Amino acid sequence: MSDERMYSEQEVAAIIKRAVELTEQEGSKYQPGVTREELLKIAEEVGVPVAALEQAIRESGAVREAKGPFQLSSEYERVVEGEIDPNQYDLIIDGLKPLNRRHSQAITQVGRKLTMQTWNGVGQSSIDITSREGRTRIQVRSSALFQGLMTLYPAFIGSMIAMGSLGERGMIGMGVAVAAALATVGGGMFAFLTRKGHEKSRELADELRDRVAQSLEVRAAPSQTSTQSDEPETLQQRLGG
User: Is the pLDDT of residue 226 over 70?
Assistant: First the structure.
C-alpha cells in the first residue's frame, strides 16, 4: 500500500493558494493567472473531461471570490495578460474616490504595485494593482466597516437610549420591545448594505480589468498603425529603386 497521501480538491486549492502567497512574500518571480491552455493541461492530468471544464469556465464569474467570516468581507481577483506602465496607474484609477485617513494615505505606489482605499458608493473597497512578469493582477477587497457604522452603531445607541428612557418611567417591557425593533431594523439594513458593498466591489474589479485591457490595447495600437503605414513607404522605396 502506498504511503502517498491523497488530497481533496478543496485541500489542493488551499495549498496552491498558500504556496502562491509564500512565493510572493519571498519576492520570487511569479506570473499570476492561468491561461485556458494551462487549464486544459491540468484537467487532462486529473482526468476532467473538456466539456466539464468548458462549462466550469463559463460559470467561473459566479465563483471568483473569497468571502471572509460571516461574509463580512469579500475579495475579488482579476488577471489581464500584459503589463501596465506604472506611470499609467493614475489613468486606471481615474474617477475613483479615495478615502483619506488621518494616519495613512489613500493611494500609495511602490514600484509596480499600487494600493488604494476608495468609496464604492455603499462602503469601502481596498484595491491592489500589480503589474509584472507579463501580467497585471487586480485585487479588490470589500469590508463591512462603514456599513456597521451606518446601521448597527446607531441601532445600538438608539436601543440603549430607548431602554434607559422608558425604563426610568417604569415601561421596561416597551423599552425592550423598542430596542429589539431597532436591532432588527439595524441588522436588516446592515445585511443589505453589506451585500450591496460586495456587489459594488465585484463590479469595480471588473471595471478595473476592462480599463487595464483597454489601456494595453491603446498602447499596442500605435505600433500596429506605424507598421501598417511603414509598409507603403517601403514598397515605394523598392519600386523607386
Answer: no
